[in-house]
Amino acid sequence: MGSNSQPPSVINLPTSLEESRITALPPAAYYIADVISDEEEKAILQKVETAPKARWRQLTHRRLQTWPSDLVKNTLLDSRPLPDWLEQPVVSRLLSIPVSESEPHIFTNSPHSRPNHVLINEYPPNTGIMPHKDGGAYHPVVCTVSLGSSLCLNLYKSKDDGAIDPEPVWRILQEPRSLLITTADLYTEYLHGIEPLETDVNMSEDTIVNWNLLRSPELYKDGLNQRETRVSLTYRDVLKVSKLGGKLGPMFKK
Ligand SMILES: O=C(O)CCC(=O)C(=O)O
Ligand SMILES: [Fe+2]
């Protein structure tokens, strides 16, 4: 293989999530560089891009889709399953990786034992998301699949007066085709956000907490990541699902 060529596209799942733990973070976060193949990435991106226009919600810089639907008062009104292209291959792989001997997968202790909601965010270069917490609607396990481009997700601490310390405590680099799982204190105690940058800078073994788990650290040896459009799929379990959901008329569904 030449020094500039990419390694071949392979799926590489750990036999236990422990192998993928980001050890510099409080319990627990996991990073799997190769959760889907190139072909699977392309197929999902194609589905995202060709979704009906009404599926997209346009914010100032970013646009997003929610599947199967938005939440209303923290409740999922639409109890239809996720579409097949969001279910396969991602959910089945997620549910196939043990956390420990007594925990067969990461959603073992969530109310529906699986993710029932996917938020799709599209970030062109120079686009980010303000530091925030994900709030009370979800079980505190967040599974994010990244497509199309790498970027850094930052984790922030609230200061004692409630203000956000603008300097991130940790930075996680998410490569395309990767899966990041964050849980527990990282959900409840810390904030996460993405800076609106054209280029992530100053990246190294010392500044990126998952450096040892990256697929291609050599691509960033100058410390830089030139962003292209990155699409993320955020899989979560919404705690409350309306029993009426399946009975709502088409007017209430998107
Ligand atoms: O795109 C991401 O990785 C983060 C998205 C996010 O934090 C959110 O939508 O709540
Ligand atoms: Fe979030």
UniProtKB/TrEMBL annotation:
One of its GO terms (molecular function) is metal ion binding. Residues 114-239 form the Fe2OG dioxygenase domain. InterPro entries: AlkB-like, AlkB-like_sf, ALKBH6, Oxoglu/Fe-dep_dioxygenase_dom. One of its GO terms (cellular component) is nucleus. It is found in: Nucleus. Belongs to the alkB family. This is Fe2OG dioxygenase domain-containing protein.
